[in-house]
Design a protein that fits this description.
Number of helices: 19
Number of domains: 1
Oligomer: single chain
Strand content: 5-15%
CATH superfamily: Cytochrome P450
Shape: globular
CATH class: Mainly Alpha
Low-confidence stretches: none
Length: 458
Amino acid sequence: MKLPDGPRTPSLLQTIRLIAQPTEFLDNCAQRYGDPFTVRVLGVNSPPVVFFSSPRAIQEIFALPAQRLDFGKATHVFRPLMGEHSVVLQQGRNHQRQRQLLMPPFHGERLRDYGQLICEITEQVIKEWAVGSTISIHQAMPEITLQIILQVVFGLEPGPRYLKLKQLLGDLLEDVTTPLYSSLFFFPPLQRDWGAWSPWGYFLRRRQQIDELIYAEIQERRAQSDSNRKDVLSLLLAARDDAGQSMTDVELRDQLVSLLLLGYETTAGALSWVFYLIHAAPQVLQSLRSELEALPSSLEPERMVQLPYLSAVCQETLRIHPIGLICVPRMVKEPVQVAGYEFEAGAILVPCIYLAHRRQKTYLNPGIFQPERFIDRKYSSYEYLPFGGGSRGCIGTAFSMYEMKLVLGTILSRFELLLADTRPVHPVRRGITLVPSGGVPMVIVRQFSKPQLTAART
């Protein structure tokens, strides 16, 4: 099997570079070896890991029959956190069933039920901001996204259980984003319970505390059986598959934790990037402000999310700095052909979102932040794929974009901000995503009169 060319350095060095400087490593490989290229980043006996960025190759990968691929080999590190029944870890019919049950709450009319609450949560978090003070966007955004998940997804209302779960989850998620702690999940030999004082023992006990709170909420919600509730957990409790079966408590727990892990730091990171990018580009900020100022004095979430330039700003942010650098890797189980190459069992195929979004053939001047490109043209799902694609695309795509636009629009409608540090930033790793270096400190220049929140007109 002739593989695409790639670096010849030892696997360990390639792995370290990919973890420590992922965008630089990918850029260097693409410039030197072209598209596709092969790396060895899964240990001494690493199978070939092949990165693709051309739209045609990505389309071919998405079209490959699922039974010829293994998706579990690349996602096993999430099992201790997400649980055995997480949709991320499922394959075949189990995966299809999970997606069918999970998709409805995150699409279409259901999103309208969440809009006003998302704006209210944002207002609540930023209400203490004062003119003349400096705030860290990177600290404020995770606070907003965590509260949105707890209230919109879990359906929790502020109270003892809410506060306890918020504290436990916030601390755990903060730890998971650090390189030292996250290494526990990549190296199974470190997963030994030597008591509460040991790193893995501490994780297991903290996970148990979180699970007890989640299961208590699930059991209480089952007992209430309130059909008027519209949070995601309530909708999942009522969902039935084709055989009329509902999710078990364990399945519900695993899906809730998965949604939390995939939607917390990722969306917060994207919001950090958008605040930096628009304030580093005055003409973009002015165009965005003009569009927001044209809204009525009452803030209607549905009208806000339909603003074309606001949408383009968020799309362009996710093009330059996608939530994930790659789609879910696919391990070949039977020989397949992609981009003119034959790949045998064991090879791992990786559609690379980051490189696809930086292709000069697709995006003129790809390194420039230019929201107008999304107003002038519509890109295919193989050219623009910030949330992945194919059968493994993120189920929360619509929700994440909806949330991102409402949080950004709400804050800009309330405050005028200024970058406290105008020096260029660079991507730094934080858990599974990349965030702007320095935390994006911003000075609050002016506060606008509070717009009145109103429900969308139907």
